[in-house]
Each structure stands twice: as C-alpha cells, then as structure tokens.
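#structure-requests
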Amino acid sequence: MSSLHDTADIRGRVLVSGSAEGEVLFTDTALSFWGGADAVTGEIIDRHHPLSGERLTGRVLVLPTSRGSCTGSGVILELILNGQGPAAIVLENPEAIITLGVIVAEEVFGRTIPVIAVGKQAFAALKTAKRIRISDAVAGIGSDIALTDQDQAILAGERGEAAAVAMRIVLRMAALEGATELIDITRAHIDGCIYTGPGGLAFAEKLRDLGGRVVVPTTLNAISVDHRRWQAQGVSEDLGRPASAVADAYVAMGAQPTFTCAPYLLDDRPARDEQIVWAESNAVVYANSVLGARTMKYPDYLDIAIALTGRAPKAGCHLPEERAPQMKVTVPPLEGVDDSLWPLLGYLIGTISPDAIPLVEGVSGHRPDTDALKAFGAAFATTSAAPMFHIAGVTPEALDPTAFAALNLPTIALTQDDLQRAWRELNGADAGAVQLVSLGNPHFSATELAALAALCRGKTRHPKVPLVVTCGRSEMAKAEAAGHVADLIAFGVTLVNDTCWCMVTEPIIPVDAEVIMTNSGKYAHYGPGLTGRTMRFGSLAACVETAVIGEDRGHLPAWLG
C-alpha cells in the first residue's frame, strides 16, 4: 500500500474485478447489511453499530467482514442497482455474503463494484486512510476447480440457461471459499425469497423465465408478507404484490411454499452428516449445531443457484475438520433460569465470538430443549458470522464433554456482569409503557404456542397492546389440532403466517407504536434499525405480563439480578 496526495492505492486478493476511488468509510466491527443498511437510501441503520447514521453511497467501505443475516447479499444487490451503494468494498478477509451480492449484480445485471480482501496488517493500516483507489483489479473465476462431466455440461448450457448462470455463480463462490471441487447436496432452503427490492424480484423472475427448475427438494424461507392474507391485514399493494411475486417465482421453479424461517421444525428434517445447502442465518446455525447436518452459511441467491445445479463448494462446514471449535466460553453458575437465558446468552457469545466457532461450557445442567437451542442459535447468528456452535454435553458433536479436550482452546470466562451488560444492550427502551408484544423470531414452534396458550389462559389482554405471533403454517396446524390456537385467539393473540418479524412492517406494527416488547434476542437487536422503534426484551412470561398490564416494569430475572 502506498500513499499519494492522501489517496491510498491498495492491492490484495481480488474477489470482484473493477476500479474505483472514493472517501473511506472505515469500521473494525462486522456489519449485517440486512437490518444494518437501508437498501433505498444507503444509510447504516444498525443502531448498535459504530457507523449508525453514516451513508455508504459513493464511499469505499472498509470493514472486516459481514455478520448476521444471509439476506445481506440481497441488500447489497439493491444498493448497487439503485445507485446508493459503496464505490468499492475492502475486507480484511474474504467473505461470502457481501461478495455474492456483488457477483449477482455483475453476472445477471452487468453492474458491479470492486471487492478486495487485504489481510490483517493492511486492513489495520487503513484505519487512518482518507481516500482509497483501486485500479484495474482482476478476480479469479474458479478455473482451478475440478469439474465433472456433468458440471461441464451444466456450464455449457445443456440443462438450460438458468442452470448455466447458476453454475457460473457457484464456481465463483467456490473459488472464493478455496474449494477445489464441488459436492452433491440432498436438499436446499432458500432465503432469497425475501423481498429486498426490485432487484431481487428481477433476479428470481429471470431465473424462472430462463427455465430454472430445482433439482433437489427445496423449501422456502419466510417471505415479506402473509402470502394468503396480506390484503386483509392492510398491507400496502406496493409491498404485498412484489413480495408475493418473489415467492411465486421460486414456487414456479419447483420450491415448496413452506414459508418458514425455521425449516428444522418441518417433519422432514436433515439427518446428521447430511450434506445440505441452507440459507437463513438461524437455520444454518441450527442445522449445523443441533441437527449435526452439514452446510455453510450460504448467502441469498447462492442458495437457489445451488438448488438449480445440485452442486455446492466442497468447503467450510461441509468438511469435518472445519467444524471443530476455535474457542471456549464458560458460563457462570446460575440458579433458577428461565427461557430468557438462551437468547441473551446466544447474543452475548456471538459478540465475543464474531467469527470463531465456540464451545460453550457450563449450561448442560439447565437442559436446554429444542426451543431454547433455537432461541440461542438465532441470537448467536445475529451477532456472529460463525456458522455453528457447540454446547458441551448438549449438541451432537459435543455430547462427550471431553470431545475437544485435546485442542487447548483459548478460553473466555463470562461473568454475571457480562450477562447484565448484554441484558441492558437488548433493552434499548426505558421500562414503562409498551405498544406491541412481538413473538416468533424465529417462527414459533407448536410447543412454544402451547406454552404461550398456557400463560394466556384465564387472563385478559390490555386493549391497547396487540400481541402478535409469527409462525409457520405447519406448526400452527399442530397447535390448532391441540386446541391451543383457540385459547390464543380468546386472549386476543394475532397469528401471522409466512412472514417473520425481520420483514413485518406497518400496519401489523401499529403506526403509533413506539416501544416493542419481545422475547427474541434476534429481534431485540434488529428491531430498532428495521422499525425505527425502541425495544424491550424479556422472557415469554414477561411478554405476556406486559400484554396484560400494558407496560414492562423492567424487573431483572432473579437468576440475573
């Protein structure tokens, strides 16, 4: 790196080709573009991030990596297509989510910006840079990857143009991941069906119109509206129609209209060691960590590219050696914990393990069930880029407490003060009046709906505090058969299918709502940026109490206080 007239010329590993120059926007904190950047204006909207309020437009964004949602690739695509994106992106190390959005913009729409990874030392030196210039950077395109005859045929267009476009994208991402060959996968879960803007819709419809058809069983993530009821719910045509059209395009390509961000709750779940391709950050983490299946944290749009070809990079968590923990986190002894422990702990451990797979010790005695692990994983995937976690004595690859004893892992010992600090971060609003209780991020399970019904039974909801739950159709059907839906409706719960809180807008969120209460660590983090509201966080019981009395009184749980 050299400097001339305060402009730094940089070189590194080129992930996407191009030339650019611009003012530096530097951060050493990873960023999720979904929930972190406004795709229309280019503003950083993650209110927990040091760059909150800054504009990306026309600047060279220098950041270590991405984190959080797989939908970040969709936001990058929209920013590039509407002219509000950065002039270039400089990373510390190669990463998939940001880069894939740029690759799709280039491959499908002919629009691009350069993306370069410069390494730790050069990245640190850019902290004081004022302007950056990237000149004629040229990326590799995966020519060193060994292709089968079938791969070659797909690339040559023998399975249609959609599959050929998809294979080009797969090969570029395989090169980024350092893969030397591709593997067969057995199923896919598509996160790219979320409506991020007209670019994402155009991408899906183009693949459909080119004859794209999935070649493995493929499920769809939660979409941006309740597909069957958005008009009755008062959702605007400007959102409802394109959001439904995105979903319809993926269904036309053969995907199942499951519309859930918790595909691991479906009856047909991946088996241990099964090679799959899942996007949606919480689903990826759950699949790897709790089910023991094998998937990388796939960005939106790469998910459908792999579903159309049946081929994925042989890299990352598909490989057993890439699944080992890289650090240990110990949790202090806690007495009488409730369900708020798990999202709190996941959120906190994600912040101290931003890109390393952790081994968590000290919680097996609390016997976390699948709902607890769902809540932990979703919050962890919000603040960490790591694709999985291990919990000693709980998760399948760490059931034997001595499984990783030989690794001599660096250790971080959490304290009660750390837990209280994380609680304060998730409770961005002062205790007091609440205008909405939000549950189901990720989608509620049938067992969570049963627990909620038990808490609501015999109580009366405050008339000015809606309690809204998002859940998948199949889990709601189970709860309905068990009689729990009737109890929830009697209390005044509103049940919303197909979409999830990371996409829900007004009027499901009341226009006059200022404070939202949730039991989701994921939504407590993303909510302020996505909705403009402030958040309260607590247990499921605390959420029901708030819905009854109209306020959260701000009491710390006994186990935390």
